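pls read this protein.

:::
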Amino acid sequence: MKAWRLHQPGGPDAFVLEDVPRPEPAPGNVLIEVRAFGLNRSEWFTRIGQSPTVKLPRVLGIECVGTVVDDPRGELAAGQRVAAMMGGMGRQFDGSYAEYTSVPSSSVFPLETELPWEELGALPEMLQTCHGSLHTGLEVQAGETLLIRGGTSSIGLASLAMAKQAGLTVISTSRSEGKADVLRAAGADDVLIDAGRVADQLRAAHPDGVDRVLELVGTTTLLDSLACARPGGVVCMTGMLGGAWELPVFRPMGDIPTAVRLTSYSGGAGDISRAQLQAYVAMVERGQLDLRRGPVWRFDQLPEAHRAMDENRANGKMVVVVR
């Protein structure tokens, strides 16, 4: 089979398209024919050398959609449409940047849907991350006000759609005035232009602060996001779009406002059930959940797709269609 392998960190051209043996499903695994996969920032971090626990060479890719080739346990029939995500994909073992992948059954989700592969491929990790961030990390409730920091990212846009479905008032941020209309069209109740600090802007309209903050930019804006939350509010750091893993200085007694809670979300497939993922996919199929997708690429265009990530040209979840 064909697979894109990363032998050493580098730019988009560090990926090498190779002929490799098709994997066999290990005990407890399912062999999947990959039809499409979404691109994720975690794979970008690995490619540039910021994932020290990932041993190279490796076939990256933490999610995919496709069809079952073989399930030795007999639970899933050959040809069944499935999504697969996390559980070590593309990190502890070879992932989805390939024509076939073998994945632990605990990370495989059977799906009943007629969505085209390029649409379905955008969903698994995005839905799981948004669901986990909102319901596990933030424990949102209808009627609350949510600030999404990094709102024009694929996760930001999906979280906006899911939060509106859950009955929240949503304020979203963008670094670009030109993208404010994108957020409003996606359902944002208010948009803040983010030059690194938005707390003063936000408190002009919400003097007490907001109930929940979803931090997708990361440590570069985290302290300012803490200043946006009301007493009793929660800030959840899920993303690192700003590219920094650490705060150079962190003084908890001064940087965390009184009674504001700080948490993070980096969960996995176990945080969403098969029924929940199926329900979200069905909502997308019925047009009840509008998730913004970015460009769609062919399998042979993978380096070009990563180059688009380097240049922040996605404007939504990018998908690679394998076949």
